[in-house]
Amino acid sequence: MDKRMLVLRFPNSITDKPIVCRLSRDFSLDFNILKAEIFPGREGLMVLEISGPKKEMSKGLAYLKAQGVVVTPVAREIRRNDETCIQCGACTGMCPTQALSIEPGTFRVLFDPRKCTACGMCLMICPVRAMEIRFAKEKILA
Ligand code: SF4
Ligand code: SF4
User: Fold this and answer.
1) Cβ within 8 Å of residue 16, ≥6 positions away
2) Which of 128, 129, 132, 133 to mutate to test the pocket of ligand 2 (most atoms within 8 A of CB)?
3) Which ligand has the nearest atom to the CA of 75?
4) pTM tops 0.85
5) Tens of pLDDT along 74-125?
6) In the chain, count of helices (H) and strands (E)?
7) pLDDT for res 96
8) Which residues line ligand 2 (CB under 6 A)?
9) Residue 95 near ligand 1, beta carbon < 6 Å
10) Is residue 34 within 6 Å of ligand 1 at its C-beta?
11) Does residue 61 sit in the same domain as residue 89?
12) Distance of CA 101 to the CA centre of its chain
């Protein structure tokens, strides 16, 4: 068995295609969608926990790649560059774990790395790229 947590990025040209559902139908893979966002006129992003036989995993990931989906492992580490952050708060509505939150009273945007699952959603929304990501080294299609 193989189990992975992945970030899928869908170019604008394929966001309307039923791609992910084929993972279970054609490759016997189970998946759990942890987060999905479509940005109008831009790309779509999905955070997926996926499991199944190793062979099917390789085939399923190769299928995604062939469709133009960019597949990356969930990052090991997310950091915030406090000097770059302008405290706009945009990321707090996007964060699924409340790792980014607004402090009552001061309205400062707080980042708690212990709550961060490294899903990468905040990277999409931050206007000044204050959230930084470090990816795992393992290859997806190894
Ligand atoms: S990467 Fe961490 S801080 Fe950013 S949205 Fe995901 S859980 Fe929240
Ligand atoms: S979106 Fe970026 S600039 Fe705005 S509060 Fe979040 S990290 Fe800071």
Assistant:
1) none
2) 128
3) 1
4) no
5) 766 789 999 999 999 999 998 988 999 999 999 999 999 999 887 778 988 9
6) 3, 8
7) 87
8) 80, 85-91, 109, 125-126, 128, 130-131
9) yes
10) no
11) no
12) 19
Is residue 102 domain-resident? Answer: yes
CATH code, domain carrying 121: 3.30.70.20
Q: What CATH number corresponds to the domain at position 48?
A: 3.30.70.260
- If one counts the domains in the chain, the total is 2
State residue 46 phi and psi, 5-degree precision: -140, 135
Q: Which residue, 136, 102, 133, 139, is CA-closest to 120?
A: 133
Q: Same structural domain for residues 88 and 55?
A: no
Q: What is the pLDDT of residues 24-78, one digit of tens each?
A: 999 999 998 877 877 666 788 888 889 999 999 999 999 999 999 999 887 667 8
Q: Is the CB of 120 under 6 A from ligand 1?
A: yes
| Residue identifier of the C-alpha nearest atom 4 of ligand 2 | 88
Q: Which two tokens stand for residue 28?
A: 């016997």
Q: Is the CB of 46 under 6 A from ligand 1?
A: no
